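Quick start: what a row looks like.
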Amino acid sequence: MASESNDEINLKQCLELLIIIISDTIDNIKQQINQSNEKQLINNLQIQIKNLLNNNLLSLSFQSRNYLFDILNQYNYNIEEKIFSIELTKNILPSFIYNLQGRLFFIDACQAAWYGDELIIKDFIQKYSLFKNKSGLYGTTLLYSAARNNHFNLVKYLIEIGKCSINIKNEGYNDKNHETKIKAIIGSTPLHTACFNGHIDIVKYLIEHGADYFILNNLYETPIQNGQLRTNIRKFFEDFLLFGYSKKLDILPNRTIIEEIKQNKDIIDYFLLFGYSKKLDILPNRTIIEEIKQNKDIIDCIWEYKIFSHHQWLPISLELSYQLQQSLIINSNKKFQTDIILKISTDIYHISLAQFLYSTINNDQTKNFIWIRCRGSSLLNFHCYSQWQIMFIQHPTGIINNSSSIQIFNMTTTNIQLNSWYNCNTKINLIFETVMNYRQKNIIINLDFINNEQIIFDLENFTFNNQQNTIKGFLRWIPKIILNNNSKLIPVDNFQLSTNLDLILLNISYIKQAQLNGIISIDEINQYELKYENIFDNEILNFSNKQSTNEKDSKNLINIIQGNIINEQSDVIVICTLSKNLIESIFTVYGKSLQNLLEMKIKENLNNSIISITTDGKLPSKVIYFVLWKPNSNPDILCQSIQQLVFNVIEKAINENYKSITFPAIGCGEYGCSIRLIAETFIKQVHEQLIKYPIKISFVIQPDRTDIYNEFCKQFNSFQQQEQSSITKSISLIIEKGKIEIEQGDIIKQNVDVIIASSSSEDLTQILMKAGGDEVEIAYYQAYINNPNSLIISTPSGQLPCKRIFFIKWEPNRDPELLQQSVIDLIWNVIQNVISYNYNSIAFPALGCGKHACSIDIIIKTMIREMKKEIQMRKLSWLVKFIIQPNHQNIYDEFCKQLLSSNESYHASIDYQLPLTWEKSKENKLRFILSKNTDEYKSISNNFDQAMKEKYTKIIKIERIQNERWFMQYIAHWTDFKKRLNKDTEKRLYHGCSEEAANSIIEDCFNRSFAGVNGTTYGIGVYFSSSAAYSHEFTRLNSNQERCMFLARVLIGKTTLGNKSMKTRPFGFDSTTDGHHIFVTYHDAQAYAEYLITYK
């Protein structure tokens, strides 16, 4: 690698010094008992950092400074004032060090990516994967650098193993005021540089894994444009992209269809009569049909028809085509006419625009039904989204449909009906919509309802076939139709329409307005944006060099035989350097030269566990992997070493594009190791790797060692039996409207709304992050850095089938009473957060039932009892699953026992009366502004005024909060407190916060995910005060220079002095306090925000 510049050396030294002073501070804090000393140490650290930066910044370039500031800004460092705007805390320092160490190593990793050093990159990814998508000191990502210099294997590793984001853009660290020109490298993606440099293999690989070829860099160039001067790249895109239907483009397209629509908005406005986003200055002087003729660029389609029983599509007349187009080019909120009658010359057509079907009446008054289709993009031509359909005209087991009736099928039946339309399921529909948006000519999809057959879809001709041409058919789309509803997106079935429905087309304008109105979720919005990378999580997609396997197929990839390994016709044979017999056999074939070469390579690669030497045709295999492995008498260490050996060998073979590997029975010779343990470990680890990599594995056992051969066969058969018997075992119980289910299975495979994890299980957290991918890991650590005291960290699901993951801050306790209380609190907090997201299905693992020295019985009994109670009391229509690992039979049995035990009697409902001051509303309003003339307003304002003397100028408004669901939960709590304590412990207290937090609280109550945001001195919960002046300190100015504060009803119950170590209330108490005016609650519904005061 290239030598370091002085600037890099100075930056590294600065980062190292920061790491040292923070590490020293952490060590000093650990030795302190007095909290005041801790605070002084942190204050001293901030001064040390300031001094260090003052002494070092002048020696750094602008880009090195900004690289450093990019780290510090995450911890609220104010560059101009040279201070941390929010003071550092003891809990933040470990993540601070991790960040600095990662970004220090990242400087070397970026150089390694540039020069193709895979060892350094792998070490970096294993230790600091959180930073893998960052841009380096010189503005390039790891993946960009590897693609730039044609390091194909490194690109594969970064995407498949490192899970780097494929469309991540470069970001520069140069000072914006000192840049003389915009650089093309900034904003560019790996595909940009691969196209620009003509690396065709990397270009194909990146696109096959979701690289966006229309994404723009800072010079507004696409990867396609970057590759225009490279003949091989230009030829690839000419073959890959669709150039049109009725009108072919002369040049390569440079934007998606959705972007094309945005570019043509002036023409769109014309279609909307006088325009909406832009008004015409003159009256329109031609019909829409004439306008279409004049503006041929926006109409690019071919209308065709097919008689039911025929296998040929014929063009529809130009006049009828124009009228069909006019019927579909409509205003976004205009009622959609599903059926129309068109008269062309003397012919009358009864056309269903919903079903793309028309009929004519014969002389004998019988109807002829004819299918129609529009070959082209529904988005480009009509701005509407589509439901895609396929029709089989040839299939080996297809049944001929001679019926004249209209019958539409879904992709679930196994009996294929020929000449019938099949609606594509959601995943496949999204793929078609997306590849059309990206103008792709062909796509290969695995159709699971026909035995996962690979089908090649031709999106230019709207046809499909398999590779053997034994399956053939047609493709079309019909418009997606929805109810004209301003509060919810409700799709309808085009073939089961009721009469007199108010229907509209689901088009781009509707989605945009629905987004503004908050009708659809962020996930739905992302779906309708049709981003290319979003369809590459689907296992149903297939590419020429992208293969997949599953657990059922893995048994066909493992082979156990007896023979001589050097005679095996395998891509790779594995030889352990400790195996004298095999080594001598190899040397016999190659002579002294191979022995010298091997010894030299071992000396040159002391840290490499695999030495690869090609066979040069002297053996049936292509390459020999000499592995440096040593046996160990410790069974755990022995297993770990074999697992690592298998992982390293398979990973290397995959990276070098080999398809088969042959292992000997390594370790089963004269070392005294357990043959059973070695065979079991090999079989298990190979099976786990085959789930990820489809590669053929053989074990070759010496002919005279039948004992080893029999043991390998025994372990292989045993493992297969375990796989077959691991069919999900479950029992369930209906509880009023809800259901609790106990299941033996895998938590990461649960298709529910929310998966629950706990901070007490580091293993489970890592499993979920690995399975969920980068999105989960980054969201988790970012949330932790922002608020390390949060009791719940909610992240997206990433690649998991659920919608969200809740990481709960919970630790089991050996004390039975404290353990029981902690489980009660855990269940309550989970339920409150699930309610706030409007979810209705959860999956719990067996929290606390692993390696903790606490009572499993108490945990399970309390979990089941509390969940039953909450479902009954709140009348929840939920599915709650407890997922137990298949090898934990005793835990599964205990969960089943507790679930099926006699149900306790809970109050299913609680009588309550809404406050008399509440106003009725049909719109589900939550906020009502009080009149200044009412006693209600005057009472609140007078108390606020007395407490806030000289801290405010005027009250802008006081709003009453009418959240009935929350109020009902609060009253249930109030009733329980009064019954238990024989007195009313309710207080009116203040809570200051930002406007954004206030809006969230009104919707979702005092959600404990905010716990610790306003401090942790008296416990990690939600803080209230009887002093409005104190709560004022936690408010924030909004854009109108206004602040807001809640006046809340709070149940303090039995309270005790709190401290910052309290994550929940101490046993026997309901809240913690400072002993004066501050109270901390630990249940979301323990307080009700009754009024919100907005003031200046």
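That is the whole record. The chain has 34 helices and 41 strands. The chain has five domains: 6-240, 265-535, 551-625+632-685, 729-900, 927-1095.
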